[in-house]
């Protein structure tokens, strides 16, 4: 592996991550979520990694580029999954369940609770327009899938599953972590709130099979 | 009305609010939600009100006292309602519906989207312990009511109604405002997600009557 550009490190590696870029992202994610975005300087991030500030600027032009990279991480995987789900012929409740399950799991598994940064006023600036558009795209796909699942009595509820999934961010923020059962609890509640009265256990089984199959396909594509 | 302590204003009143304290809170709420808490100084708040910084300190000892007062506003009214609901003998689905309806409405009606500040890392400090405890108390009352409503198939979902109600904060943040129908949509979805299969329209009617009755009682208590 290349050591990458920049001057040699001041200290031995302190952070998680296999590359300097990944270490900068990990340090920034910790500082942004525990001290706040506005209160964190690129100098503080460089110090936390154990590199010079000038070396940090070889990887990221500015602090908002680091934030943009971190935010993008939180939506890239579910957006990739959505594209895969679109070409399967599973019923909509199975696709929606699989998406909600996967997304809750990835939001809970991330080392730092980056979704807490979605409400930053800084995100309303033009700099983050692309991120906002991509997150809106994810939201719309949730809404379209939910509209296919919703019964007549609950058709207006199609806007809510995306919100319920993202509430794991608030659960993590209040309670330190989300309970292990959140990854079933939330997709089950998504089906209920859409007025869907079938057996969640059968949908869960089909969603698990689907996610396994798609993960295998991605692996094969990635290694060919 | 007393003009309150402090030196005379530099300028004519610019802010909403019938007292200097209310004007300071309105200005701070705008700045905290649009520029960020860490990026807003007490000087900037005083400038926005059109008073001297020293006058601001007659009302609030420090910036975190202003934040604490603003956050408390977001939970005081629903906590008061919970206390009133506890002494009615309405069925739990009506009490839960009334609470969720009232809370969504007050979170949407507030001029600034103050709930967006719940995720600030600053709130984890000891200074905000009392606020955290009071918000946890509100959350627990939601959970208890929801557990009474939940069917066996959805009993674990009792932790989610509080989260769904607070998701109007995220809807406001993303879309500028929540749709008018959110105040029915979310309480309806709360009943559905708890596996409750009755007619939401009848519960909504009973909840509306209950809220009217309680508002009248408060008025009478307040004016006696």
Automatic annotation (TrEMBL), chains A, B:
Which stretches are labeled DNA-binding?
A: 41-60
Question: Superkingdom of this entry's organism?
Answer: Bacteria
What GO MF terms are annotated? Answer: DNA-binding transcription factor activity; transcription cis-regulatory region binding
Coiled coil, from the record: 128-155
Tell whether Transcription regulation is among the UniProt keywords: yes
Keywords, in A-Z order: Coiled coil, DNA-binding, Transcription, Transcription regulation
Residue ranges of domain HTH tetR-type in the record: 18-78
Q: What is this protein called?
A: HTH tetR-type domain-containing protein
